[in-house]
Design brief:
Length: 197
């Protein structure tokens, strides 16, 4: 067994810095896109936090990166804006990654998804449009139903965890099953039937 010791509050400070770095990056990217007039929506764990915190702040789960949906037509402008602020482009299909500086790791990054396109070829349907995005505090994100739909489309382990977080605080229940086509509804029913995974 290996024991790693930190003095005083050093370990807690590292944890707090990691959480705050993601929030700073999300706000920074949001401000850059707003200033450039680029439509976008923050998605992923940050979007789930925005919705869950409105119901129960103790149920908020931390996230380690920033996921954003943009329109394909805006990609060149997005790339120029991010690179102009020190981000470094690293193509990584099915999404585009912009590392936050030369020594950044893949989670010290902004992950871009393209609205109205499939994230991967075998997805049930394309990712949602950002036309009906909403602003929560100062952050553009997706309306709850659209965010849930995106999570059901992509349906990775982290998406299932995010959906369960929203179920736990009552944002999603069985009444949502009729909101989606059969394939997505079946995925949601699977989670509702086994909420603890």
């Amino acid at each position: 067994m290996v024991e790693i010791n930190y003095t005083g509050d050093e370990l807690w400070d590292r944890i707090e810095r990691a959480i705050e770095a993601v929030k700073i990056r999300m706000r920074r990217v949001s401000a850059l896109f707003e200033a450039a007039g680029i439509p976008f929506a923050v998605v992923g764990g940050n979007a789930v936090q925005l919705w869950v915190a409105q119901v129960d702040e103790s149920a908020v789960r931390n996230t380690r990166d920033v996921d954003v949906v943009i329109n394909r037509a805006d990609f060149a402008r997005v790339k120029a804006v991010l690179e102009g602020d020190g981000f470094m482009y690293r193509p990584n299909p099915p999404r585009e990654i912009f590392l936050d500086g030369p020594s950044a790791r893949p989670w010290d990054a902004v992950h871009l998804f393209i609205a109205d396109e499939r994230c991967v070829p075998n997805d049930e349907e394309p990712l949602p449009s950002i036309a009906d995005r909403v602003k929560i505090q100062s952050v553009w994100t997706l309306p709850l139903e659209v965010l849930v739909r995106m999570k059901l489309i992509v349906f990775r382990l982290k998406d299932r965890v995010h959906l369960r977080d929203m179920m736990d605080v009552g944002l999603i229940d069985a009444g949502w099953l009729e909101c989606f086509p059969p394939q997505l509804s079946a995925r949601l029913k699977e989670l509702l039937d086994d909420p603890d995974g």
